[in-house]
Amino acid sequence: MQQLNGIYSQYFNRRHDVVGHVFQGRYHSILVQKESYLLELARYIVLNPVRANMVGHPGDWAWSSYRLITATAPPPPWLNSQWILEKFNASQPEAIESYRAFVQAGIDKTTPLSHVHGKLILGDDAFVARFQPPSTRAPAVARPKGISRKHQSTLTLPLQAYLEQYRDRGEAIARAHATSSYTIDAIAQHFKVSHKTAARAIKRWRGLLDS
Predict the structure, then answer these.
(1) Which of 47, 83, 101, 116 is 20 to 30 A off residue 165, Cα-Cα?
(2) How would you label 84-120 residue by residue, b for 16+ Cβ within 10 Å and e otherwise?
(3) Which of 144, 147, 133, 145 is nearest to 31 (CA)?
């Protein structure tokens, strides 16, 4: 996605003879609990042009999947509309009508992204807990297949917890840094050591943590 956005931004700037950012922010992904939240996100996406006052109805937006999902003709091969329609009814005509009503009912609802945990995980407490680091000393748990290190470590412990959990200060520093949630400077400041000392601890323990 980073490469795609970068190439398109360069093309857009050349075509329109402009400079600067094309997109408001960097691309980022969110780990979503499919069972409870994916429908909410699907509705949120097709309603974006309506909320932005660019069109009056989601079906008026030419680049929206809403038009293809609610069409009577089969969608193009690259769009899987069956999954979302099956959530509403086994009969396709009735499913389409229910989907339309579902989207319409979401116009005044708040964005589901406001419930994202740690800016990366969207789901209920039980789902989030699956990716919560343990609060007590325990062997490292293998990351579930398909889950990035970034998502796995997003709900990290506070720095004080690492300080209390590990007897060896160097190990505590290294484990806090391994979450990718804290910079060396932030860790050094909290542990009341120099940047150089923190960096040495991270280097010394890196081999153990990676094993």
Answers:
(1) 116
(2) bbeebeeeeeebbeebbebbeebeeeeebeeebbbeb
(3) 147
The amino acid at residue 1 is M
**Biggest CA pair distance of the chain:** 66
Tokens describing residue 67: 């038009």
Interior angle at CA 206, CA 202 and CA 209, nearest 5:
120
Alpha carbons 114 and 121: distance in angstroms, whole number: 11
Predicted confidence (pLDDT) per residue in 6-49, tens digit = 899 999 999 999 988 888 776 667 888 877 788 998 999 999 99
C-alpha 39/C-alpha 122 separation (Å) is: 12
Q: Please give the backbone phi and psi of residue 121, each rounded to the nearest 5 degrees, phi first.
A: -125, 130
pLDDT in tens, 81-114: 988 999 999 999 999 999 999 999 998 888 888 8
Structure letter (DSSP) for residue 31:
E
Quickly tell me which residue has 């994202």 as its tokens. 116
Contact between 29 and 116 under an 8 Å Cβ cutoff? The reply is no
Closest by CA to 186, choosing from 207, 205, 163, 210, is 163
Contact 57, 66 (CB under 8 A): no
Asked whether the beta carbons of 21 and 13 are under 8 A apart, the reply is no
The pTM (predicted TM-score) of the whole model is 0.57
What whole-number distance in Å separates Cα of residue 172 and Cα of residue 159? 9
Q: How far from chain centre, in Å, is Cα 103?
A: 22
